[in-house]
């Protein structure tokens, strides 16, 4: 995987996260096992969303369309190309969520669902346990990266609103975000 971003925060996340060229190879190795399982994983995810009082109204009447979008997103994770276009796509997903007024909790819960469901799916469908373990590590790091990139859209909206409405400089906002509560 090749990073193509000049954003120091993305560079730091990428470095600490540990994604590297071997991860792209791992995803290609397990791609054939995973792609057929994505629709079932997506069905289980949307069944869960439909039973939650906060998420059910967000998906009502749009489940089939949202499932197609979710399947396409998951499949795209196995298509290679994790550079600038990949980063932009994840950020656009966040922007769509912000415009649709989908709370960031939805994104975090969605990623958590995937992180929880994938180990069993991989273990049951990839015969080579070393390949399954390697794929799990790669996918967990990739989901973390996706969530980080998507969540930045929420941060940007909040930051832009605060800075614009209150006249706060970017430096002051960054400092305010790191001020801890006294316990």
Automatic annotation (TrEMBL):
UniProt xrefs under InterPro entries: Globin-like_sf (IPR009050), Globin-sensor_dom (IPR044398), Globin/Proto (IPR012292), Protoglobin_sensor_dom (IPR039379)
Pfam families: Protoglobin (PF11563)
SUPFAM superfamilies given in the database record: Globin-like
Name recorded for this polypeptide: Globin-sensor domain-containing protein
Domain Globin-sensor: 15-150
Organism per entry: Acidocella aquatica
């Amino acid at each position: 995987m090749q990073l193509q971003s000049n954003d120091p925060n993305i560079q730091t996340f990428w470095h600490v996260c540990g994604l590297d060229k071997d991860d792209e190879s791992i995803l290609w190795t397990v791609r054939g096992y995973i792609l057929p399982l994505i629709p079932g994983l997506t069905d289980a995810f949307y069944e869960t969303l439909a039973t939650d009082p906060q998420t059910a109204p967000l998906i009502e009447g749009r489940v089939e369309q949202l499932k197609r979008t979710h399947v396409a997103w998951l499949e795209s994770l196995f298509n290679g190309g994790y550079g600038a276009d990949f980063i932009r796509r994840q950020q656009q997903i966040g922007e769509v969520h912000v415009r649709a007024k989908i709370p960031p909790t939805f994104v975090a819960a969605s990623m958590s669902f995937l992180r929880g469901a994938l180990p069993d799916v991989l273990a049951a469908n990839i015969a080579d346990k070393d390949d399954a373990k390697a794929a799990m590590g790669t996918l967990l790091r990739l989901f973390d990266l996706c969530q980080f990139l998507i969540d930045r859209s929420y941060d940007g909206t909040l930051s832009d609103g605060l800075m614009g409405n209150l006249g706060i400089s970017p430096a002051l906002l960054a400092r305010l975000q790191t001020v801890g509560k006294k316990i």
